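Researcher: We are triaging several targets before committing to wet-lab work. For this one, the compound of interest is zinc ion. I'm pasting the protein sequence and the ligand SMILES. What I need is the predicted three-dimensional arrangement of the protein with the ligand bound, expressed as structure tokens, so it can go straight into our comparison scripts without reformatting.
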Amino acid sequence: MPKKFFNLRFDSESPQDSVGGAYLAPEGQGLPCCTQCDRQMIPFLQFTLPRAAELPFVDGSRLSVLMCPEHNEIPSFESFEALPPAYWDQGEGHWFASLEKPRAMHRVPSPPVLQTAELVMADAPDDEYYRIAVGGEPEWVQDEESFTCSCGSPMEFVCQVSDSFQFLKLPDAPEQPDGSSARGYVLFLSNEVYVFACARQCDPRAVWVTVQN
Ligand SMILES: [Zn+2]
Ligand SMILES: [Zn+2]
């Protein structure tokens, strides 16, 4: 699988593959809410899997990673190899991830927190240190991890976000509580973030996020 990168472009109107911006949700669904504070989450990453990355999922599947603008802990304190049943409901409740097979979607406005940027696929990152990689092999900061879905299928790597990657905020948006910069937000306490999904796509929520630093 070739590794590709997503670079950010801030001049696009209503991009579908984006950081921030409106959430492209399945028909009948809206923005998920944080179970800790009930606030609507915001899309940190949402994109249709680029064909060029040759990821082993249904063509046209769409990854979304959302997190509460107030709550920014790491996704899980437990380390699993075999993920428990309905593991997607057992996280800390301040984040949401899904890999949807192609289906009818609609745009849901999200709270104005992050600057909207289009994710534009490229062979090389604009910034070697702060990058969003998709496909290929994960680059582990510590020991390699692997996961098995509760359905028995392996979890396949989807994408990786560099530690300390800044998701630039709108000028009027509040600073992220326990964030690390006045200019932007970070995902999961600015750890290196790795996203995996069930190879069988047994459920749209069969996505697992692990972090390292
Ligand atoms: Zn919250
Ligand atoms: Zn599964």
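Researcher: Any quick observations?
Model: The chain has one domain: 4-212.
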